[in-house]
Amino acid sequence: MKKARKFLLNTLILTATSLFLRTLGMGFSVYISNKIGAEGMGIYQLLLSIYSFGVTLSLAGVSLATTRLVTEQLTRSSAQGARRAIFRCFLYSLVGSLLAACLLFLGAEPITNAWFHGKISPLPLRLLALSLPFMAGAAAYSGYFTAVRRVAKGAAAQVLEQLSHMGITVALFTWIAPQGLEPACLALVIGGALSEVCSFFCLLILYRLDSRHLIGSAPANGPALHQILSICLPVGLSSLVRSAINTAKQVMVPLGLERYGLSCQTALAQYGLIRGMAMPILQFPSALLASFSALLIPELAEDHIQGRRGHIRYIVTRIFRLSLLFSIGVCGILLFYAQDISLAIYQDPQVAHFLRILSPIVMIMYLDDIVDAMLKAMDKQSHLARINIAEALLSLGLLALLLPSTGIYGYLLCLFFSEIFNGTLSIRCLQDTAGFSLQWKKWILGPALCMACSCFTIRLLIPASFIPAILFTGLFYIFLLFLTWHLTREDLRI
User: Fold this and answer.
1) Is the pTM of this model over 0.85?
2) Which residues neighbour 262 within 8 Å (Cβ) at sequence distance 6 or greater?
């Protein structure tokens, strides 16, 4: 019971933190979009997509490796082994991040010359490159706090990072942003880079204080370098290849739209509407599942180490069902209230159009995230690597084929294909690994009807005010799930 209460408390902490940060991020995104417009959002998203390649090379599964290896050492009652695990994972992250920083710094000029049509200089990318070692170090220490189930300290660092990013950026915006798009992007980049530095030192200090209280006198017999590599290399290789291809995909979108017949400005604006405005709305509710994703790794890793397959099947089945029910609810709300949500946040009806088209994707997108976390906890990162690489290559080819002929809708079709392909194969792997069976008709059809009934009923009762309508829609959906026995008290016992 004590363990269950701790799991619930950590879940609530992470959920509250994630919702708070995503709310801040959404407000920040609105602020940025009002300052720099859709074209500026498109340029900024392109910068972030290139930067994400360096981030992937820097992190390379470090957080997962730290969580898994620290959990393993603490399961064996080796406090010294846990300290050795975090130290070696930190060194591994430092080497990878310095390599990534050098590559991004030196490649900034040819990248900006080739892909940004002279709209920005190499300086923003070079500043982002300098933040990579701090981000990698922070990831290692964040993995430690997940492993020891003291997520409040990692959450505090995340809050500090977001607040410092916003504060620095807003301050810089008042000074240099009015000078044009590049100064505005530069302000965003400086704010992001300095916030990573703040997050790293915060986590370092908290780790130094916390690690003094580790208990366990067993001999420190690990982890060896090959153990770190066995986790990091499959995850890192998969993420690196996928990130490289995704970066290429993101760069291809504006170029493909230009081949379709759009101007450079219009192409960047459409890309900015989807990636910088619609996608943050789609991803916002996933904060509730992100908490489970993070906390499930040490829990399932411990079960996997001890061979408790029955308990693994029990947890996986219930988490999967709850995640699916949640995803169906979010899909219905985004589909039904797309216009109201988009106008309230961005005052732009074009966002609603893309939001309505993309809303069905959240069902598989949310499931894929939590399925990936569960598979990584059970040492299936190599299998995930193959799936991710195959999906990235296939979607790249599809994007190159569709963009010049179908425009932005080719990009949307590619997003659907990527999520369905990756999610289907990952779920199949989870079935084989955890030994649970899916009841698609019972788990999808019934809840979907409950959600549709909720949306239409509440819309008729509350036609004007959409925020109360969304809240009551969600509550009525939960009520109907219990009423129709698609959700029971037993399902909530994890």
Assistant:
1) no
2) 270, 407
